[in-house]
Specification:
heterodimer; A: 357 residues; B: 184 residues; mainly alpha
């Protein structure tokens, strides 16, 4: 061990901490004896590096002393004054303070105005709240939101379904049978849809319509033939004459087209006025499509059902699951003599099903 | 010492049960009178708090629903504070749910338009700038006339904290009034 000017401070620290052996202490003492300039209190007083001075700042206690009102706590006392938190003596003191300090007078008055004025607001659904409770029925906000959501979803689904049907090109006028006059002329009322203005009961056009599932080509509109023809509820003889003329127009021109469209295989000669009765009878015998038929036809168009009205698995997969792996799922059906093997590949997943016949 | 504490806790439990048993619970008639008596004030409180009619109506309905569900355990005299506390808590929940970041506008300089000269309008403007806790304290104090202790019970604060919030709110309202007078 060698004590030098560079490391003697470290040895001194070890000495103070009692970490030096007797030999080391002797060596250190020898070093200090050789260098008396280092063995002074000034050099060795490490605490001289740290200076602790008393802070000169003083905290103004008047602001937090609430024994009496002063300029620092005046606002607090003003609030307390108008809140009714002060005793009578304290109130008098505050009033005296305001008199003594006119600059606070304005603020004091302002604090007197910071109370909300009375305001009557009625809860609009008070009765409902009571009625609900009285009957024991209560719809909570969460339940109500849920119900609204379900109703909205149902409406959306309904309109989507209806919209899908209307996009198929079928006729969807508001259906109404053409009053008595049509029957008088023995035209099948079932075949006609009439669009009228509600205000003046005018017939704007007549549309022939076979069934809802009929293709577009089978529907022919007869526009303008009955235009401006009024159909009163009670028909007088004079009015009937007018209508006869109007319907004669239909009979002569438009109606023939209608009938021809309904039965395209018939030629023009066959569609004569004389045959209208027979045609009408034939048409009446056709069944009016039920909602089941309409739905089935729609699902067939969407390739969900096959021609036998059974689920078309392959098309369902191809149309509904095509987004799974940006490609159409692969479907393979191998029919053996006694079993049927169905394989579906969806991305990385492969489903295989073997069923015995 | 241990036995003493055991006996003490037993006595306290029994006493609390007895107090609960003797406390008058809410029945259907009480509920209806609560609707009649408190729904308007509660709606006003909710409306001032959230500034949106539909939300305020929902808050009021929610509060009464909760009272109805818990009518067996709510004491009659606590119904009003229970309603207000429910509205306040539901309002805070909805704020959290909707991730509305509350901006403390307390220190913002009041801005009063030239057209605004009505004191009531100015106070409402100032009220709108207060944080929810201060606003609630002021509303309960001024409209419902609650004491610091009662407000503390509703807002789950100590009375001294309520006092501080009211003091801060009053100062903010005073700033607005000062500004209004300067404009005039």
């Amino acid at each position: 061990m060698k004590v030098t000017k560079e490391n003697y401070e470290a040895y001194l620290l070890d000495l103070w901490e009692g970490n030096l052996s007797k030999e080391e202490e002797v060596v250190l003492n020898d070093f200090l004896a050789q260098h008396p300039e280092l063995d002074s209190d000034d050099v060795l007083a490490l605490q001289d590096d740290v200076s602790m001075t008393k802070p000169e700042e003083k905290f103004d206690k008047t602001g937090v002393l609430y024994d009496s009102v002063n300029q620092q706590n005046a606002l607090y006392f003003f609030v307390a004054y108008f809140e009714g938190d002060l005793s009578n003596d304290d109130k008098k003191e505050v009033e005296q303070f305001v008199r003594d300090h006119p600059s606070y007078s304005n603020k004091f008055k302002q604090f007197g105005k910071v109370h909300l004025p009375p305001e009557k607001i009625r809860y609009p659904y008070k009765r409902e709240l009571q009625a609900g409770k009285g009957d024991g029925h209560f719809i909570s906000i969460a339940a109500r939101n849920w119900m609204i959501g379900v109703a909205a979803a149902s409406f959306a689904a309904f309109f989507w379904f209806m919209g899908s049907i209307s996009n198929t090109g079928d006729t969807h006028y508001a259906q109404e049978r053409l009053a008595v006059s049509i029957d008088d002329y023995q035209y099948s009322p079932v075949l006609f849809n009439v669009r009228k203005d509600k205000k003046n009961e005018q017939v704007n056009d007549v549309t022939a319509n076979t069934t809802l599932v009929a293709s577009k080509s089978n529907i022919t509109k007869v526009k303008g033939e009955l235009r401006n023809t009024t159909v009163p509820k009670r028909t007088s003889r004079a009015q009937l004459t007018t209508q006869k003329k109007s319907f004669a127009n239909v009979k002569a021109s438009g109606l023939n087209n209608v009938m021809a469209a309904l039965e395209p295989q018939q030629n023009d000669k066959e569609v004569s006025v004389a045959q209208n009765k027979r045609t009408k009878t034939k048409m009446n015998q056709e069944e009016i499509p039920t909602i089941l038929d309409v739905t089935a036809a729609y699902l067939k168009r969407k390739k969900i059902l096959n021609s036998g009205r059974k689920p078309d698995l392959k098309n369902i997969l191809n149309t509904t699951l095509s987004g799974v792996n940006d490609d159409k799922p692969i479907l393979a059906v191998n029919e053996g003599s006694d079993s049927k093997r169905t394989v579906i590949q969806l991305g990385e997943f492969k489903f295989e099903r073997t069923s015995k016949k | 010492m241990g036995i003493y504490l055991l006996i003490k806790s037993f006595v306290i439990t029994v006493t609390n049960r007895e107090v609960d048993r003797l406390a008058i619970k809410l029945d259907k008639r009480d509920y209806h009178s609560a609707v009649n008596e408190f729904s308007d004030g509660l709606y006003r409180f909710a409306l001032k708090l959230c500034k949106e009619e539909s939300m305020a109506q929902d808050l009021v309905q929610d509060a009464f629903e909760k009272v109805w569900i818990k009518k067996e355990i709510i004491q009659r005299e606590k119904v009003k504070s229970y309603l207000f506390r429910t509205v306040y808590n539901k309002f805070l929940d909805s704020k959290k749910k909707n991730k509305v970041i509350a901006i403390d506008e307390y220190d913002q300089e009041p801005v009063i338009s030239q057209e605004t000269s009505d004191l009531k309008e100015v106070l409402n403007q100032a009220l709108a700038t207060l944080p929810a806790i201060q606003k609630s304290a002021i509303l309960l104090r001024d409209y419902e006339g609650y004491s610091y202790e009662e407000i503390g019970e509703i807002l789950e604060l100590k009375p001294s904290q309520v006092k501080v919030y009211i003091y801060r709110a009053r100062k903010q309202l005073q700033k607005y009034i000062g500004k209004l007078e300067a404009v005039i």
